[in-house]
Amino acid sequence: MDAEREEGGERDLEEPLLKRSPSLTTSHLAMVGSKVSRMESLDYEIIENDLFQHDWRSRSRVEVLQYVFLKWTLAFLVGLLTGAIASLINLAVENIAGAKMIAVTRLVNQQRYLAGVAYLTGINLALTAIAAVLCVGIAPTAAGPGIPEIKAYLNGVDTPNMYGASTLFVKIVGSIGAVAAGLDLGKEGPLVHIGTCIAALLGQGGGGAAGGRRRWRWLRYIDNDRDRRDLITLGASSGSALPSGRRSVAALLWRTFFSTAVVVVVLRGFTELCDSGSCGLFGRGGLILFDVGDVQVTYHAADLLPVAAIGVIGGLLGSLYNFLLHKVLRFYSLINDSEADLEPVGLHLHLSVRLLVAISRRCTPCDAGLPAGVCPTTSRTGKFKQFNCAAGYYNDLASLLQSTNDDAPAALLVFFALYCVLGLFTFGIAVPSGLFLPIILMGSGYGRLLGLAMKPYTQLDQGLYAVLGAAALMAGSMRMTVSLCVIFLELTNNLLLLPITMIVLLIAKTVGDVFNPSIYEIILELKGLPFLEPNPEPWMRNLTVGELAAAKPAVVSLSGVERVGRLLEVLNSTTHNGFPVVDHRPKAVVAELHGLVLRSHIIAVLRKRWFLGERRRTEEWEARERFTSEDLAERGRKEMFVDLHPFTNLTPHTVVETMSVAKAVVLFREIGLRHLLIVPKNQGPGVAPLVGILTRQDLRAHNILGAFPHISNRKARRNRDKASS
After folding, report:
1. Domain carrying residue 610
2. Per residue in 65-93, pLDDT tens?
3. Upstream peptide bond of 689 is cis (omega within 30 degrees of 0)
4. pTM
5. Can you point out the beta strands (E) in 543-611?
6. Burial class (CB in 10 A: 0-12, 13-18, 19+), 8
7. Same domain flag for 562 and 711
8. 545 domain residue, yes or no
9. What angle do CA 353, 355, 360 make, to 5 degrees?
């Protein structure tokens, strides 16, 4: 998270207006995968220059229809491919895990326990090593869930090498290996990342997302950051629809709904195909669905107290889990690359402990009311595994520990503490991983424990406690409410659970927010990704953008018709990605702010060598004609000029210098800006037309506090005064 969570009061009138360090320092480096990369913002804003306006005016009706058809076609392909790949991942995981379980069960039944442990350890070691080696050696960005980087991308931050073909391949194979090995992680985060990779590759015509020329002529219509963001959003939405079967999201309205609907149709069709026995050991596994639609859920006003207790404890446990996971991730970040592939390989040994503990467990008789073939199971995935028990009995802990995290039964009561510890140390290793399923399983165990404790005092169903516990721990850790409510509504398929689920989610999130940010915000902070939060810090209301601009070095501006030498000097001496264009007319008293030109556009002009022999402004037709020409400019002149007017964004977002930083943060984030120009409140002769320019790094809370230390010092002083009083 990029904001320090501190409370600020109003500014004292006796304090000086500007009390700061000499400059506003920023860091443009962040962790993407296992490497430090330079972060750049994305241009989600429409660049309304002469060339852009001419391009839109010159498009025919057919080209407009092609653009619309292309976007809907890509939405369909994203949903189709994401659903198909997710189905194949489920199929591979269930068959590998099922075959592994059959072999181990056979050895245990023969009382060859050490051979069973050795076999299980070797298989899990091989699967984990494959996932780890691929992540470390080929695509480090494929490790982890990928969701924090996707959130940063949609927030306006370019995350390099996150959506390439190699990342997609490693994410698919690594997810299969890590989940089939029985590691305490889920595949929902990787599925979201897989969806975004598919979307990015489709937008690139099959090439890598990092660059390269597009192979399809139609794709020129979406050759901009704004349309690529929409594609990434489609991919993320398609991936997030998979773990829970969710069919609708709030982003991009109809195209997103269409894409996720395609995913669900593909996934449901695949599930029905496998129900007929055509998918090997897949059976009915692979989906999380606590279907209690036929259960009559009844609760009364007296039951609200235990429901509220579930939410409070879930918020406390979720914040504690975030705190501990933060420490574990910091520890992992200190391990160098050469040791990164040893983390997951070492962790696979806990599977041997699982097996030994499962063998020592007593056997439980099957419920006589269960259908034949459901309990116990030996050759297929299921909830009641016979393992080393006699006919008619099942090993409850083996049923839990040897599952693939998608079909774990209610025996989470026994496994809760062990799963919490293993879940903490498994997430963050160099394999594709997700948090959704592990937190659901931990929350179910916690809810089941609480249900047993409250059984004498309430009439609520014990299974309902498990569902509410999972929802509470999810909200306490991830701090989501509306989306989780929809997810659990479809997971349970019971509308009667909606009111108490909403209560639990709201209470758990509120309690968790008191202690620390969400788990994904913690990961964003650890990686250094410049993510802008939707709500600015309270003390930002007491600071103006003019003060913020004064803490920065002087703004570098360009003339409308600029010397080539000056352009090269500016490009070589700065790393800025946007430059204000100021016109100094000979007879004008006041200089005019013409707009903003991007660094990439200047480089494109210089590569074309579109130079002028004299300082003059070109005609509208001349710019378009000469810029698209292949001819080189005439050589031999002492000084050459470039007319920047045709490439300048004529409508950059500008704010008055008296605007508060809090309002500027909201504006910057909501519109998706890359640059925010600050103009003086009073304009006239002798007044510069531009006060400064702000980027997302300038609006990050900890960067501002570094330039204005009196803000944090005053808050610390007030906190001490409150404590002493």
Report:
1. 538-624+636-724
2. 888 888 899 999 999 999 999 989 988 98
3. no
4. 0.81
5. 558-559, 561-563, 578-583, 592-598
6. middle
7. yes
8. yes
9. 100
